[in-house]
Hints:
Order of helices and strands: EEEHEHEHEHEHEHHEHHEHH
Number of helices: 11
Mean pLDDT: 94
Amino acid sequence: MPYEPNPQRYEALPYRRAGRSGLRLPAVSLGLWHNFGGVDRFENARAMVRTAFDAGITHFDLANNYGPPPGSAEETFGRLLRGDLAPFRDELIVSSKAGYTMWPGPYGDWGSRKYLLASCDASLRRLGLEYVDVFYHHRPDPDTPLAETMGALDQIVRSGRALYVGVSNYPAARLREAAAILRDLGTPFVLNQPSYSMFNRWLEPDGLIDALDDEGVGAVVFSPLAQGLLSTRYLNGIPGDSRAASATGFLKTDAVTPERIAQVRALNDVAAARGQTLVQLALAWVLRWPQVTSALIGASRPEQITDAAGALNAPPLTNAELEAIEAILRGTPA
Length: 334
């Protein structure tokens, strides 16, 4: 049977503008960093992508090195595009990135024109697409001139390989430099993708929120659930199928401390008082900033996506609730 998406898919999830651009993204987007690689079950990946699109999640975020093995998440999504989503391509925002190690030698990493153009072409082949909607430089390169990296992004747009460009993991000062170069080139620079969660708040003292506002760039924040720690998954220990237990996961067992779990329990109480799950509270918290266009979630099961998609169904966080969360995060709950 051909896949037929939910006809009401655009009725519940809000869409937010990427900075001052014309691009709007769902408040929750699906990242394919984990659980979509060659080592993972294809039918589970298919179920998650279908669940996401049925919920109005139109943005699917990839990178050249996602897997494992590297490149295989793009191959998986390419297969899903051909089998399920091809009729709906114009409803999708598909993004990819390059900037981490992808192949041996001096041309398979960082931010040279050589690497970015070759990697973009390889991503398009794996995805089976003529263009991606957004192509990102994945991390700042300390050695390549920023003008070269941004010039490569400009060429990627002008050659038809992408519609918009973005950067990822760029702090405020570097973002401002990149924005100035891209503005002079006339390149549609719409997004920065930083990490951000209740347990990882580096971008606040860095001044990134102000930089986004000044430059008219939106943020798609990744790891808003702190690799699953901001859920009820670890309240009774470390499950065998969790990221903390996985050899390929970025959440390590030593991060699941008694002190952290005590905070998670207290935050779960705040969520319950609001009629939300902890996942929904954590997403609503990062989305409280108007500069944050979308919260990028990962998932291992379809029901996790359904849960996350309801993040903004509750009323906005009140000042009293935000103060209670701050107290918990400081370790001084009332």
